[in-house]
Specification:
Elements: E1 2-5, E2 8-14, E3 28-30, H1 42-90, E4 91-95, E5 101-105
Antiparallel strand pairs: 1-2, 2-3, 4-5
């Protein structure tokens, strides 16, 4: 069975590992989970923790890269604004009667 989480489909299944009574465990598992907390082995628990750590590190790294990219774009746009303001400062701005603007630079 699958459940929609936002815009993604998440697989839902049962643990299925044998309980003390010998019946299959009916605990629901979502997404990449291997087994319920009761039935996880130490190795599986370590793998799950490493997976979560890796996902967290990847998410944090992507967020930091996005922040840095945003800063670089802002700096680039600010430099471009200063360049364009410098160009406008060197010219004389006149308004034509037709509503169009004409800029004369260096005569």
């Amino acid at each position: 069975m699958s459940v929609r989480a936002g815009d993604q489909l998440v697989e839902v299944r049962l643990c299925g590992r044998p309980t003390r009574s010998g019946k299959p465990c009916r605990m629901r598992l979502y997404g990449p989970e291997i087994a319920c907390r009761t039935h996880l082995t130490e190795h599986e628990r370590d793998v799950a923790e490493a997976y979560q750590r890796g996902m967290g590190d990847g998410h944090r790294c992507g967020w930091e890269n996005g922040q840095e990219l945003g800063k670089q774009q802002v700096e680039r746009l600010q430099r471009r604004i200063r360049e364009l303001e410098g160009l406008l400062g060197r010219g004389t701005l006149r308004h034509e009667t037709g509503g169009e603007q004409v800029v004369e630079v260096d005569g």
